[in-house]
Amino acid sequence: MSDAPPVQPTSASAVVDADVVDACIVCGGAYRPSKLPGLFQCENCKFISADLSIPDEELSRLYGEDYFHGSEYLDYVAEADSLALNFRRRISVLEKLMPNLASAELFEIGCAYGYFLQEIAPKVRKASGIDISGDAIRRAIEDQRVDAVEGNYLDTDLGRQVDVITMWDTVEHLKRPDLFLEKTAHDLRTGGLVAVTTGDIGSLNARLQSKSWRMIHPPTHLHYFSVPTMKKLLEAKGFEVIYVAHPGNSRRLRSVLYFLTALKGNKRNIYEALKDYRLFNLNFTVNLFDIMYVVARKR
Questions:
Q1: How far is residue 237's CA from residue 27's CA, in Å, rounded to a whole number?
Q2: 3-state secondary structure of 200
Q3: Residue 32, strand partner residues
Q4: Could you tell me the residue ranges of all domains in the chain?
Q5: Rg, C-alpha atoms of the chain
Q6: Continuous H helices in 121-214
Q7: CATH number, domain 64-298
Q8: Beta strands 147-150 and 48-49, pairing class
């Protein structure tokens, strides 16, 4: 066990920095209305964001128990086995990029129910995490028995530098991912890794789907990165990008049915008519090459 001090969250109510966002967080350019309805695009680097004037308190309310059980996920607990498969694939990449991973300390931002921490814990010296959702942290501690705290990472003093920080499907939810990455650079040892997954709005599928792309759903998704804008932001915060891939994603078929019919199609009746078929219990892996996995090293 590590003798490192525990994280000290000083605020559990704020989701992001309260500063007004009036310029592109990637390059500082001016935002202009995008061709995608309701979104804005930087006139310089083409980074795309949603309306960032949403109050922090409203963002905080989005991530209660409903978020994991019907609001964005059908049933997050039911997805545990497919999520674990995704996490094992990501861990295998980290093992290749950091041969001494077994002696490393890892910290996860946005740890949710602790499924990744549960998978990574046996493979590192120490693993811990943080999430803004009190419901998620309660389940992470009680069910997965992992080291996790409720709070806002921006307001949290880790009390030490760590070797790896992960943000799985998290940066798109943050009003100020630039500040999160800036703090991440501070909290990592020189040579440490930050690993991020998020949608790639520059991908062929996103461009073909345009406004119908499944990843576009503000206000839970506030920012829409492409590989170039993600690289640009990471480099600006003191990182060197060393790995970029577009891996497949495993999900339970019933969750996909729910997303397409009830959430996106507003046809709950279709979901209710089909959901009990055993076919929808199956896990499957699909790759539309529109989710990026990026790893960067602190310079």
A1: 11
A2: coil
A3: 41
A4: 64-298
A5: 19
A6: 134-142, 177-187, 204-209
A7: 3.40.50.150
A8: unpaired
